[in-house]
Specification:
Layout: E1 10-15, H1 18-29, E2 32-33, E3 43-48, E4 51-57, E5 65-67, E6 73-75, E7 78-80, H2 84-93, E8 102-104, E9 108-114, E10 120-124
Parallel strand pairs: 1-4, 7-10
Antiparallel strand pairs: 2-3, 3-4, 5-6, 8-9, 9-10
């Protein structure tokens, strides 16, 4: 029988300082811990939907983004959020640096922000509803 993956179980995200990154992911994105964390632990395990997201301490944080063939910066991880316009405004009100909101027909709205290690994290509002058009 062939192994057929049916979901992403865990993403291990390299960070320089687990405590600093944990605070950012909790304060900025509202992500919750899966397991208790004690300062000094080498990793913090968060839950995003039904996937684990481990903030794992490392000395060398690799670049977790790339430029596609059309010259657009792409993040390795794109997280889906509800009410993306409200999330965008809330982050701006909190003085979190965010990119411009992008709209792709049939692809929906997205924007990105940068975590404490310089990793680009993209937020996506989900598939657009039938007839949904770009907001002015």
């Amino acid at each position: 029988m062939a192994a057929t993956p049916h979901r992403i179980a865990v993403i291990q995200w390299p960070v320089k300082n687990v405590e600093r990154s944990l605070k950012w992911y909790q304060d900025v994105l509202g992500v919750t811990l899966t397991f208790p964390f004690t300062p000094g632990d080498p990793a913090a395990w968060l839950c995003i939907g039904d996937a684990g997201f481990g903030l794992v301490q490392t000395e060398d944080v690799p670049r977790l983004e790339f430029t596609d063939s059309q010259g657009n910066l792409q993040s390795i991880v794109q997280l889906q959020v509800n009410e993306i316009h409200e999330v965008y405004q809330d982050l701006q009100n909190k003085k979190v640096a965010v990119s411009d909101m992008k709209y792709i027909p049939d692809g929906g709205y997205s924007f990105s922000l940068t975590d404490p290690d310089g990793n680009t994290v993209s937020l996506w509002g989900g598939w657009p509803s039938p007839g949904e058009e770009q907001a002015e």
